[in-house]
Amino acid sequence: MILSVEELQFLYRNRKILHEIAFTIDEGEVVAILGPNGVGKTTLLKCLNRILHPKGGAVHIDGENLFNLGTMEIARLIGYVPQRVETGRLTAFDAVLLGRRPHIRWDVTEKDLKIVDSVFKLLSMENLRLSYIDEMSGGELQKVAIARSLVQEPKVLLLDEPTSSLDLKNQVEILATIRQIVLDHKIAAVMTMHDLNQALRYADRFILLKGGKVHALGGVEVITPQVIEEVYGLPVIIGEISGMRCVVPGSPAWDCSTDCSTDCVAGKL
Ligand SMILES: Nc1ncnc2c1ncn2[C@@H]1O[C@H](COP(=O)(O)OP(=O)(O)OP(=O)(O)O)[C@@H](O)[C@H]1O
Questions:
Q1: Residue 256 above 70 pLDDT?
Q2: Which of 95, 157, 202, 254 would you label with 263, given CA atoms 20 to 30 Å apart?
Q3: Quick check: CB of 17 below 6 Å from ligand 1?
Q4: Ligand 1 in contact with 43 (CB < 6 A)?
Q5: Closest CA to 146 of 103, 196, 182, 110
Q6: Is residue 193 located within the same domain as residue 239?
Q7: How far is the CA of 147 from the centre of ligand 1 (A)?
Q8: Domain ABC transporter: where (predicted)?
């Protein structure tokens, strides 16, 4: 187990946002945190990263109690991609190089530069190296933030809606790259997501939050019409398109043969 979260609680002023959240994640796993707007997904990631201070509970990474560590020690273990990325008058190259800070002792080394170069290549963003981040589009900036988290070489990646600003091709490429990095480097990724179909495609396990609590947790078997309706309050059909499980809004009364013109076989499962 690479990450363990025990009985985590968080309050904004007197309002309880997270109630006794508990789960574990193994190395090589991508886990999607799902749930409606305002349920506490970002708050949970910020508690795991110690940006926010939980009222109770514990977080361990590789057996180390995160709450006993300093900012730089945490940055060596966790790469965090926030939902809203801050900008400034920096080139993309320098912004990504900043991700190496937890590893730099005196000065930037050849190794640091090599790692930054390789991540620019990996994410197909070499064309952005010298662009200023305060002149970038939302999607370009999101890629810079993901690149910065990768050069940190963390044990755990925490990604808050990592594809929210990306076009379809970039979404697929970035999620596939994260998936591969998690497997190759035996790390773990925890991503908040709204797109259930992308979650089904790229995550191994799912944590569904409702009312600040873990409502369901597990593999693909927990993504059922009943659970999705309980969590989001929306009836859905779960089916398959070209062998891939997918979720489409609709009620069981939906008749695929007459109500929909695609070749989706929703309702088959
Ligand atoms: N700084 C803050 N002060 C007080 N309450 C806050 C603060 N930030 C967030 N909240 C509240 O905490 C709750 C959880 O917010 P959070 O951002 O974690 O939700 P989320 O699940 O990530 O939502 P979304 O899917 O819309 O991004 C919300 O009700 C929100 O209004």
A1: no
A2: 202
A3: yes
A4: yes
A5: 182
A6: no
A7: 25
A8: 3-236
Q: Please report the DSSP string for 96-111 in residue order.
A: HHGGGGGG-SSS--HH
The residue whose CB lies within 8 Å of the most ligand 1 atoms, and thus the one to mutate among 8, 10, 11, 17, is 17
* Per-residue pLDDT tens over the stretch 42-72: 999 999 999 999 999 999 999 999 989 999 8
Q: Write the CA distances from 201 to 6, 31, 58, 160, 251, integer angstroms.
A: 27, 11, 30, 17, 23
Single-letter amino acid code for the residue at 202: Y
Which residue's alpha carbon is at the smallest distance from atom 13 of ligand 1?
A: 38
Residue 20 carries which DSSP code? Answer: E
Are residues 214 and 267 both part of a single domain? no
Distance from the alpha carbon of residue 155 to the mean position of ligand 1, in angstroms: 26
Are residues 36 and 166 part of one domain? yes
Task: Look at ligand 1, atom 24, and give the residue with the nearest C-alpha.
Answer: 37
Q: Which atom of ligand 1 is nearest to the CA of 212?
A: 14
pLDDT tens-digit readout, 138-166 = 999 999 999 999 999 999 999 999 999 99
Expressed in percent and rounded to 5, the helix, strand and coil fractions of the chain are 40, 30, 35
User: Which domain does 21 fall in, by range?
Assistant: 3-225
DSSP 8-state code for residue 189: E
Which residue's CA is the nearest one to ligand 1's atom 5?
Answer: 12
Query: Would you say the CB of residue 219 lies under 6 angstroms from ligand 1?
Result: no
Same domain, 124 and 196: yes
- pTM confidence score: 0.91
Query: 230 in a domain, yes or no?
Result: no
Ligand 1 atom with the smallest distance to the CA of 39 is 21
Q: Are 96 and 147 in contact (CB under 8 A)?
A: yes
